[in-house]
């Protein structure tokens, strides 16, 4: 059995685990970004609702102030009715008062609508604010869990790389260079098994005689299709 070939097969197992953990770690920032995006959208919703409520309150107060001023004007107009000298002027004054009163009635309806709309929004705003507070608390806990997971994965990767370095210390520079080149070009898989005459890297058939040589594990043999290095492991055939 070729010792360098055996060692590289072990290194490949480590590299596969390293790749799996690096992919897992890469998902952590995505989780955090998704979480923050959700919170940001909820914060925006709460902020917009608050702004709308404030605008409605301002508009209501403005109309209430306007209504009070108009009511005072009507009172003044009514108090001056007895000063009118002709019936025509009297009727004209009455029409002005009636028109002003109708306008006031409309303003009062608008004020009621503004109050009702504001109350509805305040209820929604209260629910959204409560949900935001709840999600921020949950997100804090989730963030800590993700950070802990990242540290754990980093520790695993670090340990795997140490084991890999220890094994590669017993492999020549030429074999290491060939293996690394395959890792880079073949998606992190440089050494593969063969099952029933099929390369488990590219899943192409190899010649029967070549398969027989691969089973011996005596030398470096490359897949004719993908150039990955073969290492036959009988216990992985099932």
What would you say this structure looks like, in words?
- This protein is mostly helical and 238 residues long.
- It has 2 domains: 17-170, Helix Hairpins (Orthogonal Bundle), CATH 1.10.287.1490; 172-238, no CATH class.
- It is 76% helix and 3% strand.
- The chain has 4 helices and 4 strands.
- The protein has helices spanning 3-79, 87-168, 173-185, 208-216; strands spanning 191-192, 194-195, 198-199, 229-230.
- The strands form 2 sheets. The protein has a two-stranded parallel ribbon.
- Helix 1 (3-79) runs antiparallel to helix 2.
- The longest helix is centred in the middle third of the chain and has 82 residues, at 87-168.
- The model has no long low-confidence stretch (mean pLDDT 92).
Question: What count of structural domains?
Answer: 2
Look up the CATH topology of the largest domain. Helix Hairpins
Q: Helix count, per DSSP?
A: 4
Poorly predicted runs of 5 or more residues: none
The total strand number stands at 4
**Backbone shape:** rod-shaped
Strand content: under 5%
Q: Which structural class do you get from the secondary structure elements?
A: mainly alpha
Level-1 CATH class name of the largest domain: Mainly Alpha
Measure the end-to-end span.
22 Å
Order of helices and strands: HHHEEEHE
Which sheet architecture does the biggest sheet show? 2 strands, parallel
CATH architecture descriptor of the largest domain:
Orthogonal Bundle
Q: Mean of residue pLDDT?
A: 92
Q: Supply Rg.
A: 40 Å
């Amino acid at each position: 059995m070729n010792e360098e070939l055996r060692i590289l097969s072990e290194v490949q197992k480590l590299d596969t685990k390293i790749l799996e953990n690096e992919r897992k770690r890469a998902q952590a920032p995505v989780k955090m970004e998704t979480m923050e995006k959700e919170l940001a959208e909820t914060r925006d919703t709460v902020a917009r609702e608050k702004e709308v409520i404030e605008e409605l309150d301002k508009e209501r107060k403005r109309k209430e102030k306007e209504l009070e001023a108009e009511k005072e004007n009507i009172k003044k107009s009514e108090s001056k009715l007895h000063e009118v000298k002709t019936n025509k002027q009297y009727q004209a004054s009455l029409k002005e008062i009636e028109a002003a009163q109708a306008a006031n009635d409309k303003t009062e309806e608008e004020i009621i609508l503004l109050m009702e709309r504001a109350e509805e929004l305040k209820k929604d705003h209260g629910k959204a604010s409560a949900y935001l507070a709840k999600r921020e608390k949950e997100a804090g806990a989730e963030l800590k869990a993700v950070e802990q997971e990242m540290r754990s994965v980093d520790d695993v990767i670090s340990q795997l790389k140490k084991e890999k370095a220890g094994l590669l210390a017993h492999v020549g520079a030429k074999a290491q260079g060939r293996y690394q080149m395959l890792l880079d070009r073949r998606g992190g898989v440089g050494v593969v098994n063969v099952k029933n005459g099929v390369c488990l890297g590219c899943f192409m058939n190899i010649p029967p005689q070549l398969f027989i040589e691969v089973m011996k594990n005596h030398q470096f043999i490359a897949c004719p299709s993908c150039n990955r290095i073969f290492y036959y492991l009988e216990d992985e055939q099932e």
